[in-house]
Amino acid sequence: MAAAVRNGVPGIIGECGGNTSCATCHVYVGEDFMPLVGPPGDLEDDMLDLAVSDRRPTSRLSCQISVTEALDGLVVETPKEQP
Ligand code: FES
Questions:
Q1: Cα 8 to the chain's mean position, in Å?
Q2: How does pLDDT run across 27-66, given as a tens digit for each residue?
Q3: Is 82 part of any domain?
Q4: What is the distance in angstroms between the CA of the first residue and the CA of the last residue of the chain?
Q5: Which domain holds residue 62?
Q6: Is residue 83 part of a domain?
Q7: Which of 51, 71, 80, 81 is the most buried (most CB within 10 A)?
Q8: Does residue 1's CB lie within 6 angstroms of at least one atom of ligand 1?
Q9: What is stated as this protein's family in its record (predicted)?
């Protein structure tokens, strides 16, 4: 989320600044990367249920994804709607 906001990526708003309380950073992670990114935590899981856009098995809040070298080349899709 932080990298996307700093670089003006459309569709990732990050309204709460990464505090897991807005879901405006919702993304769909590329399936190949899901084993590396991992599942959402409990709070994130609850927030994803409240996201405006449809939830998918690959949904994550991008502010909760820790960027590591293992994620080099990570592909995410942004939802059609973000609040
Ligand atoms: S920036 Fe608000 S939940 Fe991610």
A1: 15
A2: 999 999 999 999 999 999 999 999 889 999 999 999 999 9
A3: no
A4: 15
A5: 2-77
A6: no
A7: 51
A8: yes
A9: Belongs to the adrenodoxin/putidaredoxin family.
